[in-house]
Design brief:
The chain is mostly helical. The protein has two domains: 92 residues, Zincin-like (2-Layer Sandwich), CATH 3.30.2010; 146 residues, no CATH class. 43% of the residues lie in helices and 6% in strands. The protein has a four-stranded mixed beta sheet, with helices on one face. Helix 1 packs across helix 3, helix 3 runs antiparallel to helix 4 and helix 3 crosses helix 6. The radius of gyration is 18 Å and the shape is globular. It starts with 27 loop residues before the first strand and ends in a 5-residue tail after the last helix.
Length: 271
């Protein structure tokens, strides 16, 4: 649950500048061995990212998250550390804050979406979770840019807000992210590929689906909180996308279901 409002008074350029913000819904700890960037700066970016997405994830609280800089990333490990904390690996070199926020918010989406209840594509629909988290990461970068225009982690970082927007705009211009003329037909053409490999074609298929999801959730941004209710379906022999989306819909509060219904309709799947 969100804690009480905190008011942070800023005295120097080296103190974060959030003057009135909700306490973050979960804590992140940066590995002190972070490469090619000051861990304190990395921490500031991640904390800021959490605050920017906090209004859109409901009252969800996560266990602490340990973030490490490793080439095996970005990935959220299924196995937790000795303290029971989540472990997230990010592959970011240097002070590339846009990429850092993008990767971190994607992995945060996996944590929120109960990824560990459906590991290793056991549902055959992990591709959809991957696409959903790709969409959420794009949404998050946009919200972070909004925040940094007014309350960057440090005053001299305000100039990075346009860079965040450019990073997002450049990705959205990529050919594989263009909208499919008919999403239902496109899905049917790639259905077997998706079920066999959640990251098929170097994630290009996920990125196209993510563009559709981003557009759908733009109609009701607060409904991003629906990600808290995915992967909660019962374990059955039915591994179809129709069952997967129905479980998501049925486990989600009624006020957050509109985007799920829109997804079903656009994919040509009966609710």
């Amino acid at each position: 649950m969100f804690s009480k409002l905190k008011f942070l008074i800023v005295f120097t350029l080296f103190i974060p500048t959030w003057t009135s913000a909700l306490a973050p819904p979960f804590q992140v700890r940066v590995d002190p061995a972070w490469k090619a960037a000051d861990p304190k700066d990395v921490q500031a970016v991640l904390d800021s990212t959490i605050l920017s997405i906090a209004p859109y994830i409901g009252n969800r609280h996560l266990e602490p998250v340990v973030v490490r800089n490793e080439e095996k990333g970005p990935v959220s490990l299924y196995e937790r550390d000795k303290q029971g904390d989540y472990v997230v690996l990010l592959d970011v070199k240097g002070r590339y804050w846009s990429q850092l926020a993008y990767q971190f918010s994607h992995e945060t989406c996996h944590l929120l979406s109960n990824y560990d209840l459906a590991p290793n594509n056991v549902s055959k629909q992990q591709w959809f979770e991957e696409s959903l988290c790709e969409a959420f990461s794009l949404f998050s970068v946009g919200k972070l840019a909004d925040q940094w225009e007014q309350h960057p982690p440090y005053p001299n970082w305000k100039e990075y807000a346009p860079e965040l927007r450019k990073y997002l705009a450049d990705m959205l211009k990529e050919e594989q992210r263009s909208l499919a003329p008919n999403l239902a037909s496109w899905y049917q053409a790639h259905k077997a590929t998706f079920e066999a490999d959640p990251y098929a074609q170097g994630r290009k298929l996920n990125e196209k689906m993510a563009s559709h999801l981003l557009k759908i959730f733009a109609e009701q941004p607060e409904a991003w909180a629906a990600i808290n209710y995915i992967n909660l379906g019962d374990d059955s022999k039915d591994k179809s996308l129709a069952k997967y989306l129905k479980d998501w819909h049925d486990n989600t509060p009624a006020n957050l279901r509109a985007p799920i219904k829109a997804i079903q309709q656009q994919l040509g799947i009966k609710g």
